[in-house]
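wait is this the right file?? whatever heres the structure
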């Protein structure tokens, strides 16, 4: 489906009370005259038809102190001085340095509306990590866009080898990361797959098998063959257009995978052919692969089982990740998926995320340049993940040399993840996103989740197109490797 034809509709929060940036207080002096409801264009104040009283303020819609510049500012409009606006002290407890409260709130707004926030009080494009993408800026030209948005294409091809296998072109340069059955709820998996079908892109099963409810979306699902071989079956490999070997995750290279016993429910155990309640470990590495020749045997095995499928190779980012990428090309892979230090899982230990794998912004350029030197860059699709949180991060990654990106956390935040860090526990995710607990998993349904994801993807696409417009580019492929369009704020003049 073309981005311009994707159906966008409002999909509000499933919770009565979000964490707002501002607190709007209405005192007892209020006479319910509805002046505030008539004045506010953001829907902070509402008086429902047939009701005598104004509803309590919907704080999260408030743009805060900047509204004082407007002639519709509710505080000034109120004839009884019954309204006040203040910072919400709870807001600062939301998020962390990488995913700030503004970035989380901005993602929620995009998931609700389908468009980037109009508010200027939210810095939702850049985090506060002190490094990585947060130190890079796009050198966007001033003035009006150079070309019309309808002239801009965000499509990218995934098979660039011209080897007779599927010629797959996705409509947006982003797809959903691997989240296995067991690590997230079934509703989360199905909504990710449904959204991928809507956007003509992909999502990945992760290493926990292939639930039958994904079958309607076979053409948009990547099935993963990981070191634990959980749920790997010839039948599911034959159903899909892309098969991914996962050699390592960026957040925990050299550590393998670990699913706690409390998340290994009866259905998860049946899918993974394991014992219910037992902790499940994925070893590191594949103990049958210690060379490029061994790697090629793996790839040839999948190609024999599924003659149409493209092969993706997911690796972490050690110092020699460029050699791994070239080796994957000669082994016959179509896609090299490099996963940086902050990619992979909400359950990874901080010491691994912060100290082992190379940050993705370094790895992208390293791999891109080495593939060019080898003369095979045009035959390999380079996909990056590990810390891509916004459309601006996506554009920066492409400027560094990636063809597209895989996202995981951003999808979870669109479903109202609050970054609590309890993903690994069966009942740890209070919002039911990364939970195998049936009660928690029923907190949302597929229809709601799919629309939230679709809306967020649309907002990202709008932003990406705007960036390409300003650079005068008609295709996102023109952005690949354009490091000259980036600046590091510590070294810019």
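ok assuming it is, sequence goes like this
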């Amino acid at each position: 489906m073309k981005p311009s034809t994707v159906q966008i509709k409002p999909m509000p929060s499933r919770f009565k009370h979000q964490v707002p940036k501002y607190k709007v207080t209405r005192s007892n002096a209020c006479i319910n005259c509805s002046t505030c409801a008539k004045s506010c264009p953001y829907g902070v104040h509402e008086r429902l038809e047939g009701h005598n009283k104004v509803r309590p303020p919907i704080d999260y819609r408030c743009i805060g102190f900047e509204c004082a510049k407007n002639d519709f500012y509710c505080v000034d409009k109120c004839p009884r001085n019954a309204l006040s606006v203040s910072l919400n002290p709870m807001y600062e407890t939301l998020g962390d340095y990488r995913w700030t409260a503004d970035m989380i709130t901005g993602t929620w707004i995009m998931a609700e509306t389908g468009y980037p926030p109009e508010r200027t009080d939210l810095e939702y494009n850049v985090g506060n990590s002190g490094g990585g993408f947060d130190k890079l800026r796009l050198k966007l030209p001033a003035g009006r866009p150079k070309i019309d948005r309808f002239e801009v294409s965000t499509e990218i091809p995934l098979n660039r080898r011209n080897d007779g296998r599927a010629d797959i072109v996705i409509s947006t340069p982003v797809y959903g990361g691997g989240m296995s059955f067991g690590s997230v709820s079934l509703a989360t998996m199905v909504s990710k797959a449904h959204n991928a079908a809507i956007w003509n892109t992909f999502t990945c099963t992760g290493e926990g098998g292939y639930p039958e409810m994904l079958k309607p979306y076979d053409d948009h699902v990547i099935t993963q063959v990981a070191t634990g071989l959980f749920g790997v079956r010839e039948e599911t490999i034959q159903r899909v257009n892309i098969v991914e070997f996962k050699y390592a995750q960026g957040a925990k290279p050299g550590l393998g995978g670990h699913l706690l016993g409390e998340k290994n429910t009866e259905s998860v155990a049946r899918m993974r052919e394991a014992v219910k309640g037992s902790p499940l470990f994925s070893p590191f590495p594949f103990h049958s692969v210690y060379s490029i020749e061994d790697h090629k045997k793996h790839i040839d095995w999948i190609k024999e089982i599924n003659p149409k499928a493209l092969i993706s190779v997911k690796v972490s980012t050690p110092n020699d990740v460029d050699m791994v990428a070239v080796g994957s090309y000669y082994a016959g892979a179509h896609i090299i998926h490099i996963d940086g230090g902050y990619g992979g899982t909400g359950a990874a230990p901080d010491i691994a995320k912060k100290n082992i794998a190379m940050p993705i912004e370094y790895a992208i350029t390293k791999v891109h340049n080495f593939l060019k030197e080898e003369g095979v860059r045009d035959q390999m699709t380079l996909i990056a993940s590990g810390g891509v949180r916004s459309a601006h991060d996506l554009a920066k990654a492409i400027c560094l040399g990636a063809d597209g990106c895989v996202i995981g956390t951003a999808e979870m935040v669109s479903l109202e993840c609050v970054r609590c860090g309890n993903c690994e526990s069966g009942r740890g995710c209070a919002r039911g996103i990364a939970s195998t607990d049936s009660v928690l998993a029923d907190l949302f349904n597929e229809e709601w989740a799919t629309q939230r994801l679709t809306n967020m993807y649309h907002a990202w696409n709008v932003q990406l197109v705007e960036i390409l417009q300003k650079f005068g580019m008609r295709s996102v492929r023109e952005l690949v490797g354009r490091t000259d369009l980036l600046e590091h704020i510590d070294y810019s003049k």
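Residues 14 and 382 are 37 Å apart (CA to CA). so i think its the right one actually
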